[in-house]
Fold this protein.
Amino acid sequence: MQFRQAAQSLIQLFFPQTCRGCGSDAVNKDQLLCLSCLQRLPATDFYPNAGNATEKILAGRLPFLNAASHYFYTQQSLIQELMHQFKYKGRQEIGEYFGKR
């Protein structure tokens, strides 16, 4: 067990896991964002509410049973930066992270 911890510490030293939002090293290998960045994400709380704003925007454009946005998307925001990294820089782990959330 001590060998495993030493090996992980050595890997972290040479290949540090950093927050995708702010670049801090206050994350472990399983985290994408630090707690500070997670708190900065603008949550919508739409998912439990039928007839929410996302459903209204999509109504008539395509068939669906329910729709919701987990976060608000605004210009110059952390969400915009993360989506840019996912879409244009091939950061697949960002898509996987938000897909699981």
Summary: The mean pLDDT is 85. The longest helix spans residues 2-14. The CA atoms of residues 36 and 51 lie 31 Å apart.
